[in-house]
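Hi Y.,

Following your request, here is the sequence exactly as I used it, all 171 residues.
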Amino acid sequence: DIAAKKAGTVFLLKILSNIDSLRQEQAIELRRIGSVFNASIFVIGEKSKAFDLSSGTVYERYSVNCLNFETFQRLIKNELPEIKYFKGKKIVELDIQKFREKRKLLGLTLENIAQKINSTSESIHRYETKGNTSLETALKLEKLLGEKLVRKIDIINQPLAEKIEQAANPD
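Below is the corresponding structure, written out as tokens. Let me know if you'd prefer a different format.
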């Protein structure tokens, strides 16, 4: 385990080869220590039981953010990730204001967009109001609208667990 500080931000790191080896009791203790020191807590790992961790993706185990080493290195350089992995899906958060403005600028209705990306108008409305969707859907929307819509995830100042419930069923 490592504690470090950069530009006023305290990091508590637990290094594990397999992030699934983090036990719930350990996660609770890490979160307690993190709250005492107002620290950002991360598990740095290479894999889970089922797969290698992808760069640029945030995983979660017992409300603790888990990253591979490359993603953590980028984070230290202020390069925030865009993708959350949850229940087998890569989830992203859309910039809902940019999405709505671009859709209206192009004169597209929710139904138009739904038809063009093989979705429903209800789903498009949900993406435009809540912002969470699968990476696959976000890429289709970005291509259709010709605009970068995916937001960066500030995992230093905002715990992943706050939005994980919203991200559980984006489609």
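The chain is about 40% helix and 20% strand.

Thanks again,
Q.
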